[in-house]
Specification:
271 residues; alpha+beta; Nucleoside Triphosphate Pyrophosphohydrolase; Transcription Regulator spoIIAA; seven-stranded mixed beta sheet; four-stranded mixed beta sheet; 13 strands; elongated
Length: 271
């Protein structure tokens, strides 16, 4: 028997179906080769054009309705984008600077460039993250409350662990790291994670950037007597609640948008 009502199930399905939102038509597209790989809000465009003019960049060219990234070797293109990122940071256009790099990976799995993770939203590049559903045999799920000092979605509920996949990480390596850092789950237990799939999310975020990300999903069944403990200061505490209660919190808007999608997917499979 289902643990959530048909109405709730339909609402969770709709949430997942709308996880990819359209990009505003007036935003400038960014292309690599013939593929659109990013979008830039209009207010940023004159500043980026000024940067191109002042630096005579070898990597960036404005063509009509899009900004073209030249197909340079990854190391050279990465350095060109690092220079642009530093310029935009000084202009105050890269909120949440982390000092950590993400990699942009093409459809064949090749890394084409890497650059500060915060610039991915400013330029609308596609990024990757891992999310882990921690649950028990008693049909309960663990959720973490994000720290009030987090740059994005402070104080909101999240999965037991989640985080961006750094440039030199695989999804599994990211999951193991985040499980220890965010919830104190040791490696021998964390390695029991079950890889489930990927959810693609896309939406405009404030200040005006684009969050375009693939969420790599893992499930982890935890012992009933296990209590997560945060190690990195990014989580204020944890709650364990029945599947049906988690569904209610999703529909109330208590979870981050990404965690809501991941948890909705979990509940549709398990509840």
């Amino acid at each position: 028997m289902s643990l959530i009502s048909a109405t709730t199930r339909a609402a969770l399905e709709e949430l997942l179906e709308t996880s990819i939102r359209p990009v505003p038509h007036h935003w400038l597209s960014v292309r690599y080769g013939v593929h659109i790989i990013g979008h830039i809000q209009p207010d940023y465009v004159p500043i980026i054009e000024r940067y191109i003019e002042e630096t005579e960049s070898n990597a960036l060219v404005r063509f009509g309705e899009h900004l073209q990234l030249e197909k340079l070797p990854p190391s050279l293109l990465s350095q060109e984008l690092r220079d642009l990122a530093e310029f935009l940071k000084k202009e105050g256009l890269v909120p949440g600077w982390r000092g950590e790099e993400f990699a942009w990976v093409d459809e064949l799995g090749h890394e084409r460039f890497r650059v500060e993770r915060a610039i991915f939203r400013s330029l609308g590049f596609h990024s990757r993250a891992c999310h882990i559903n921690g649950y028990t045999q008693n049909k309960e799920i663990w959720l973490g409350k994000r720290s009030m000092t987090k740059a994005t979605d402070p104080n909101m509920l999240d999965n037991i662990a989640a985080g961006g996949i750094s440039a030199d990480e695989t999804p599994q390596q990211c999951a193991l790291r985040e499980l220890w850092e965010e919830s104190g789950i040791p490696e021998n237990l964390a390695r029991l994670i079950d890889p489930i799939g990927v959810i693609h999310v896309k939406r405009v975020v404030e200040p005006k950037g684009l969050h375009d990300e693939s969420l790599f999903i893992f499930d982890l069944e935890l012992p009933d007597d296990f209590n997560p403990q945060n190690n990195d200061g990014e989580v204020e505490g944890f709650i364990r609640l029945p599947f049906a209660s988690a569904a209610e919190l999703i529909l109330e808007g208590a979870l981050t948008p990404d965690a809501a999608a991941v948890t909705a997917d979990f509940l549709l499979r398990k509840a």
